[in-house]
Every structure is written in structure tokens, then in C-alpha cells.
Amino acid sequence: MGDLEIRPATADDLPAIVAMLADDPLGAQRESPDDLTPYLTAWERLASDPSQHVVVAVREGRVVGTLQLTVIPGLSRRGATRSIIEGVRVHADERGSGLGTRFIEWAIDESRRQGCQLVQLTSDASRTDAHRFYERLGFTASHVGFKLQL
Amino acid sequence: MGDLEIRPATADDLPAIVAMLADDPLGAQRESPDDLTPYLTAWERLASDPSQHVVVAVREGRVVGTLQLTVIPGLSRRGATRSIIEGVRVHADERGSGLGTRFIEWAIDESRRQGCQLVQLTSDASRTDAHRFYERLGFTASHVGFKLQL
After folding, report:
1. How confident is residue A1, by pLDDT bands cut at 50, 70 and 90?
2. What are the φ/ψ torsions at residue B91 (nearest 5 degrees)?
3. In CATH, what number does B5-136 get?
4. What is the ipTM for the molecules in this complex?
5. Which residues of A touch B124 (CB under 8 A)?
6. Which parts of chain B fold into alpha helices (H)?
7. What are the extents of the domains in chain B?
8. Does the pLDDT at position B47 exceed 80?
């Protein structure tokens, strides 16, 4: 396989990103790859917020992964800045290729560069394979993640 | 008890906020209420970031609670904006007064006002009382929260 590049996403990457968000057991029910309008609106907000880093992984000119890193300053833990990883998706063709690991390692390195003392993420309780994957990368499953739909 | 006001925090509230962060079984080990320098540095960053809302609850002129609400735009869930609640602390004298409920209800209402479709938070697995509290307020413990210290 050709070289892998991880770079900031652009609006042109949105169709490929949304296709990956939808190609997932949970995502299939909540995404609309045939209607990009809501994603374009969200993109405007993401692109103008310096705390947001949406990146894509590209192999041979093709977008094969995406994740969103958010940098959050805070007061607790002696004024620690933390990062949150959200929306990690790897193209079906790339599963098992090591891209997931490369991707999370990129997010950890970037968090360090941004002065974060903590990286955090939540993973749906049903994604047990993902849980083992994050633990192998050094994460601790120390918290319970609560969500409330508005 | 007198009326309760929830308002944006100011730099003058930092000593009271840090005292509450430290007055907690987990916080006692990781905060430094005698040295506010790192908190003042973090405060500069928080105050200049429009996605960050650090608030305090005040009763009879005294700060009795704090929380941080972060608004995060995103692509997944049809470009949903979510909010994250962090650093919730209620003064020891106020526990059982209903302030915790008022506070989280404030955060939910504010999230709605900010156009969020989802409110999320993580709670240390050891805080089982807090878990029941969030479930009573409508949150679902659907996720596992992973952290990595840098």
C-alpha cells in the first residue's frame, strides 16, 4: 500500500468524510450522506474555530480516515488543558492496516504539541473491539460516559 | 437559604473555584489551592475562548458551585453541535440543597440556547452517587470514558 498522509481536512473532503461516518453500524442510522447541507453548515463553524482540528488520512489520493481533535482549556488538575478525540472513522478497506493506531498516535502527538496534559475520548459501550484497541494504546477506561439527546 | 444566582465566573472567583476543586476525594491529590499561578494562566485562555463557559453558583454573595460548559461543533450526527460539562463542583455546605440539579439543568438549558443537539459528560467510575444523579436527570450511561495522561 502507498504512503499514508495525515493532513487538515478541507471542505472538498466532506463527501468522503460523511460517507465514512455513515458506513458504520451506529452511523448508518444517524447520518445523511445524500444530503450534505447540514455538514456544510457545521463545517463553517469547525473551520473558524481554532480549537478544532478535523483531519483526514489520505492514501494514494483517497481519503481513508477521519477524526476530530478538540483542545479544551480548563481549571481542574492545576489548570490542565485537555484534548478530546471524536468522530474517529477508518474506511472499511483500511481496517487492520494499522491506520487506526497511526491515527490515534497522531492525535496524541498533536495533543502534546498543543500543550495538553490529558487526552480523552468516549466510545459507545457496544464497541468492545474499540475498547481493547484504546487500552492497547495506553488509555485507561476510568470513566463512565453519559449522554443526553436534546 | 437565600436565592441562588448562576452567572459567568470572573478572575475574582478563582480562589473560591480552586478551593472547591481541591475539596474532593480525587481533587485533593491533584490541585494546588495555595498556588493560583497555573489557574490564572488557564483562566486567560478560558476567558478568550468563546466556546468556553465557566460559571459559578452564588448564594448570599458566596460562591457555592462551579462548572465548565464547552460547546463543540462537529460533523457526525448530521453536523451536530454538542456540549461537554466538566469540572462540576458543589460546596460541601450545599450538598443535598438541590444545587447540583439546578446546575445541571442550567447547563442543559444553556446547551439548548447554544444550538446543541447533545450534552455529554464523563464521571469517574468510582463516583457511583454521581452516576445515579445524572441518570435521574435523563442522561444515559451509554459510553465508556477513556483517558490518557501525557
Report:
1. low
2. -60, 145
3. 3.40.630.30
4. 0.90
5. 142-143
6. 14-22, 37-47, 76-79, 99-113, 128-136
7. 5-136
8. yes
